[in-house]
Amino acid sequence: MKTRLIYTALMAAAAIMIPSCDENGSPFGTQTSTESAKPEDPQSSAPVSEEPTREDVINAITPHLTAYPWLAPDEITLEPTTGEDGTARLNAHIKLCVRENVYRQESSPEAFNNERKAINQSTNAAMQPDSVYLLQIGAPTDAITEENRAARPLPENLQQMVNEMRQMAEETVFAPVAEVGTKYDVLATMKADRTEDGWQLSNVTLQTTNLPEPDNTLAESALPEGAQKLSDDFVANRINELKAKIEAFNAAAAPYINSREEEARATWTEYRAKVEEEARRTAEAATAAAAEREQWINHCVTTLASGAVFRGEWVRESRFGKISLEVTLAEKFESSVQFYGVIYDSNLPEAKLDITGRCEFTKNEDGTSRLLVTIHDGFYDPDQPTAEVYDSEDGVLQLTVDDKGNLSGIMTCGAWRDTPDKAIKVSFTPAQQQAQSAE
């Protein structure tokens, strides 16, 4: 229950004692004549009535009706009572009459729900994402981009038509709440104090459950200029207008929707052509890569074939010397070519050391392949820095081979892992290439 409570201040005149209740227990006295009043002042006011008057009640409830300026008290029936604390109270059964038509403001009137739904359906049909059309013509999901999944904005002319329809379907209107002459029954309860100057009514409680919510109601005179009043004729006319506009929109949108379908087919055709082109390029690239790998494998096998001889030099700081590498036997495997051979000082060919080597077919980013040569037993010059590697149990040549068949890298051993600066730089050139250069 909603209740409004306003406490009315006491009047300026001092309160007087309430007369004793009559035989029925009523707190309202019966001695109201001038003879019984016996005023001390000959100029005293008129006698006080036995019960509060209509005007007294109206004055008491008026502050409670400020939110209802379109209501006015009509019939009033008074019912004197006694409160639990023995105070005199009054129940006033009041009929409030509507003085002018009252309206309630409504946005997006319910009467046009079906039309708004039809507008949304037509709009959505024209704004469908490209993905809808692509899926309809059989495009796979991997052919659909995030951009395809986004709703497509309408062209300006169609968007303007949608805006007009929505404005009409969502227009703020004023629906009738009560007509002039409508009456509402309310109950007002209050404390009644009888003073020498009249009745003082306070602690007024007005039960407003039966009244319309005041926050959303306006009297006709308070409506804004040009306010649209909701009526059966207005609703019927507006529905017909909306239906006509929806049909006009659908007719205008049909060519656009057809163009979207054609656009989707063109997009799908373009996508398939692009996929086919990418597949062709991928196949060509794979073929080229396979050919290039095969060519490189052949290069490695040919470079390190049985009988291949390489001449070069070794260098460490200010020390240097000549070195040769010969392949005596080579064998091709799936991912490498392995070989056996010897290395020796080019000026001392009778002092040789046995080697085994492996060249990987995988090409590095710099266009070379890794070649590892393990040094075994043999004869060598003990006075050269290379003897430090030859003396070790794990002497190796860590080389790479380039596209011209040159070998380069270092000669080292496991003991120098923490002192890599001790490694001896080595480089080899195919002897055949050297001979051709000499010619």
Concise structural overview:
The protein has 439 residues and is of the alpha+beta class.
Keywords:
30% strand, disordered N terminus, elongated, 8-stranded antiparallel beta barrel, alpha+beta, single chain, 9 helices, 439 residues
Low-pLDDT sequence parts: 1-26, 29-44
Number of helices: 9
Q: Let me know the number of strands.
A: 16
SS-based structural class? alpha+beta
Whole-Å distance between the termini? Answer: 118 Å
| Helical content class | 25-40%
Biggest sheet strand order reads: 9-10-11-12-13-14-15-16
Beta-strand percentage range? 25-35%
Order of helices and strands: EHHEEEHHHHEEEEHEEEEEHEEEH
Largest sheet: 8 strands, antiparallel, barrel
Average of the residue pLDDT scores = 86
Radius of gyration: 55 Å
Overall shape? elongated
Give your account of this protein's structure.
This protein has 439 residues and is α+β, with helices and mostly antiparallel strands. The protein contains nine helices and 16 strands. It has helices at 34-37, 54-61, 113-126, 130-136, 146-149, 156-169, 232-303, 386-391, 431-438, and strands spanning 3-6, 71-82, 88-98, 102-106, 173-178, 183-195, 198-207, 217-219, 309-316, 319-332, 336-344, 352-360, 369-378, 396-401, 407-412, 424-430. Strand 11 (336-344) and strand 12 (352-360) form a beta hairpin. Helix 6 runs antiparallel to helix 7.
